[in-house]
Amino acid sequence: MKLNVKNLDIASRGVLLNRVDARGIGVLDGDRVQVINPNNGVSVAAFVETTSTITQQGTIGVYSFTNERLHLDDGTGIEVREAGRPASLDFIKKKMDGGKLTKEETLTIIKDVVSDDLSGAELTAFIVASYINPLDLDEVEHLTRAMVETGEQIKFASRPIVDKHSIGGVPGNKISLLVVPIIAASGLKIPKTSSRAITGAGGTADLMEVLAKVEFSASEVQKMTEKVGGVIVWGGATNIAPADDRIILQEYPFKIDARGQMLASVMAKKFAVGANIVVIDIPIGQHTKIATMQDGRKLAREFIELGERLNMKVECALTYGDIPVGRSIGPKLEVIEALRVLEGATEPNSFIQKSLSLAGIALEMSGKASRGTGAAMAQDILTKGKAIEKFRQIIEIQGGDPNVKSSDIIPGEHNFVVNSPSSGYVIEMNNRSLITLARTAGAPQDSGAGILLHAKKGKLVKVGEPLFTLFAERNWRLQKAIEEGRRLMPILVEGMLLDRVPSSSEF
Amino acid sequence: MKLNVKNLDIASRGVLLNRVDARGIGVLDGDRVQVINPNNGVSVAAFVETTSTITQQGTIGVYSFTNERLHLDDGTGIEVREAGRPASLDFIKKKMDGGKLTKEETLTIIKDVVSDDLSGAELTAFIVASYINPLDLDEVEHLTRAMVETGEQIKFASRPIVDKHSIGGVPGNKISLLVVPIIAASGLKIPKTSSRAITGAGGTADLMEVLAKVEFSASEVQKMTEKVGGVIVWGGATNIAPADDRIILQEYPFKIDARGQMLASVMAKKFAVGANIVVIDIPIGQHTKIATMQDGRKLAREFIELGERLNMKVECALTYGDIPVGRSIGPKLEVIEALRVLEGATEPNSFIQKSLSLAGIALEMSGKASRGTGAAMAQDILTKGKAIEKFRQIIEIQGGDPNVKSSDIIPGEHNFVVNSPSSGYVIEMNNRSLITLARTAGAPQDSGAGILLHAKKGKLVKVGEPLFTLFAERNWRLQKAIEEGRRLMPILVEGMLLDRVPSSSEF
Q1: What is the distance, to the nearest Å, from the Cα of residue A464 to the centroid of all Cα atoms in its chain?
Q2: Chain A residues interacting with chain B (CB cutoff of 8 angstroms)
Q3: What ipTM does the predicted assembly reach?
């Protein structure tokens, strides 16, 4: 059926058909139609919603995410017909039934993911099936290659190309802000694409956005990296391994990170930017994604073997993830801490040492430093001011102010200090509770929101001494966070009462 | 935040917020908000989409499915705030991790399903998790009770109340059109709720709709049954076990019928209408849902045990499901066939015998007939014209024409006869292909579309003799079906060429 386009400013996928036209095409709510732009030949499948009034007969409403792919102008006459059932659904069913997916089947699924031919529910079925019936390493390799092939790729003229990745779960893990400038200052190239926080309090992209733009195309990433040696951008804007964003979105409600999808997602992004030297940070800790050293080593071996299959050198660093890295959680607070260290501060040690270790591994893997001397070289680059100089170049090329100082960044104006209710050692910090608290205060959307820690695990505090400060940009969010903090008790001090049971419960 | 309602005529769930308001509330696309109608106190969670133009700042667009629950008028001021994460998601995650759900956890999930607090993707995760990690009988019982409790229930003044159900998969299975009037004519009550076809060519509700209205409330079902002894209505309109419709919708893309959900769905509907005598038809066949007698017996035992837990007497009939029941597939064609039998026709035997057997079992279970005499009593009711008399009462009470005759129903005007390409016995009929073909021709939406079989399995046909006729209401659908038929070859005749391999492939 031929229908005239009417763009609808609704941030969603799909098309809105008049009920009469829907019947004419032979589709019901939730069915798929194929929509073809006659001017550029682009054809996409779109899910149908229906109306009697908002789009008139003869007109097709196109929601904005769908038109981002089609580029249709109002009034364009387009052909709309019932779309077939995607073959992907049979392959997803196969995985539900415990089968092993071939390379072609995996590619078909990922192509359909990228072209929006699968609904969120259908993609969820794929993720849940792969979560329960885990992908083996062949399937993970297929998935990685499929993610690479369905997106843009960067080909640098020369190698090595370095990259790093943290699998996450530890709040305050701002180390890319140190590692990237150190590596780039050493003369190596590191085109770092990073994520925005999904379940965290601030992804590296959220942090970098405090200082500069982070949305660039793949070719801009390449040009900037060729020029200054490194960038820190948001991967979501590059169209590199775009399937991953949609997968992560569907994982979000269940707070899962299906192992196969996670391995593939990390390695696809590294492969697609042309990296051949990759350091992966696997934080280990009770309240992080990987609880034990044993699980961490297993995951490390999988990353390394997957790397071998893709001709990439991979090393994994199992790091201490029981407590936050550094003292700050939330975009602006973390940026302030990182800038201070780049400006010369020698604290906090946990943050500096972790960054130098990871940078050191990459320096050794690339041959810049001999075995055992990488961390010292990284330290040297930091201490001599070469890292801050490089970071300013990176900020400038990404459109930020290269002269920015840590004191220029102002966290949220509403804050509240939580004092220790007793004297004793800090015996526990709960990562998940700290993240929840920072998010309640508004992080990462409100970049000034977050938590500043005054005492870390093992420190002796006196009653009434500050444990941490909550920051927020909006007072109601601060109040909500204060309330939440009372319930969550993210930091425990020896001798602190966990609960008080009234005497009436004695019998 | 206080916002003014603007109803949006879009057949979907959710709300459309202006981007400024979304930011003020602190939500992004895809997040949940809680929306409360101040006039009736109804509160629902709704998923957010955003716009800059279609709803102005201060206004909230409400999609029609969501407003079917809220009943908000344009301009009403309502409170909108960020909604919490439903606890259901943790329980679904538990099932993904192989855990066993408690009664309370199951009820929480089903409550959220019914109140639209879960997205389609989240519900899909529950279904896929239960498909891969099957529910045990405790969990199925919890699910059944949860489905009953979250919908309306009918309490008849006296028992027994009879019900029947076919688990489906066999085309042309129109037996309810015979069984219900026979049972009701015997003096028993049978308030039959049935489904519309999801993956089939015509559900019982689609068939009955050719003759009368099928959308009634639970209390109307009760009143009509009290009056004439039986009804054949669409379950989806009654608000009986409403969770089931949403579950089936999410299963549709994968053509699955997760065992636990299926057991619970069938038994919840029977329990909720007050039935205590239930006959379940389990068709066995290569191209149906249950392939072997062994699987059929296992499923039968589960139905019976679940029935015991719910104080219902259940018997299962394992029936021959390898080929269609009767000679017609598609709403109008099936209704014509059923009416002819009720009017006195003694063919087709497969349809009549199956209907009498199932009605007979119910007559025996209820004590109307002694063991071994049920089918004969059913035959007697049919032959003496009591069934057609009762069926006319049922049609009339459901608002149809009680004087309708089989010759009044006219199938689709476009038709095409498929002749046998060779002489020999009909050796195979593929149910799935026949269903696909009938659907391609337009069934069940186009009620006149379908297939009339002229030869069934085992019949000797001569070359050029008709095998089947395709019917459609629209010519383009007929052409599509003819094309599809060539590819699918739903009926195989001995000696028919399946494919022709050119000689060049010999080496």
Answers
A1: 37
A2: 8-12, 16, 23, 26, 28-30, 49-54, 85, 89, 92-93, 96, 98, 119-125, 128-129, 131-133, 249-250, 253-256, 442, 445, 477
A3: 0.86
